[in-house]
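Appendix B. Chain record.
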Amino acid sequence: MHKESLKSASRQAAQFWDSRTEECRAFLARCGWEEAVKSAVGSDSAQRRYFRLRRADGATAILMESIPDGNSLSTPGHRQSDFMRIGAWLRETGLNVPGVYESDTKEGFLLIEDFGDISFKTALAQGENPGGIYHLAGEVLAHLRKSARTAAALNLPDYYQSHVHKARRRVIDWYMPVVLGCRNEDGLAEEYLSVWERIEKTLPACPQGFLHIDYHVDNLMWLPAREGLMRCGILDFQGAMTGPQPYDLANLLEDARIDVAPGVRETTLDFYCRDMTAAERESFRLWYRVLATQFHCRVIGQFIRLALHDGKSGYLQFLPRLARYLEAGLADPLLAPLRSWFALHRLDFAKVPTAAEVSLAGVHIRPDAV
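Structure tokens predicted for this chain:
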């Protein structure tokens, strides 16, 4: 792959934002926050960044600065307008998402409620009981499952037609050529996808509903002073879709960023499925395994893509955990066809590439990689 084609989208986004200083100042002036002290509070894998604003009276808010909807630099599935309309629906169902104080989606600015600094991940690191944390996260998903009928009014994108589902091939497009040190042959990704199709055809229908799509402990804020489900502040939901309900739970319980104890995982799964029939539980568990492993196949390649394409090499630290998830998932008899296919093509997950190896092997990525 030509180095010029790997020019950092993050750098282009930063240059775009730097060119919009006056527009940002004008937005904050209109909102009454021009004199607030501004401090960065992070970014994520999308072309978006956040700042905490603190006024002299002690009030705080979060400035979300995004590439405007429709701009060629924007990240698919991360529209500010969707953040606003989906957030409104989530509040109506009784869940806790940041209130929107002011907005200018044309310019890419939102001023939203500040949920503080304690994510579920931070709370866990500070000694909060994992069982309680994951139980609450599972309660939120169970609540969303029961709201599936009203979610239809949102007219969300279909998961199976989305960039997310398509990207389950990234283990082939990005991980495989880096590990094997050679360019993929024509048709290899399509052959891999056909294996998944054969597996899925053996399964019963999967329950469909609202999907957050990025449901993990960094996107859930711990608000213990509130009550019930409101103790969970939900972020980064603008990419929501309609799709297979086990997906969000798989994202939560097999997170690339943090280990979840097997006992906590099983307890949370059991709680989520508690009101299902035996047949429904069996179907859910089968689809959970398929969707979790597809998720890992996407993300293990996506993190290499982020390193090579966007200069975000920090995500490479999570490759070993993803590889362990894949090895464990492939041990399930349900996925035996995929395990055999990987073995046939000499792809295993016993040793993941280092950052230096990823950088050197970038030349093997096909130009048509997803």
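Further analysis of this model is presented in Appendix C.
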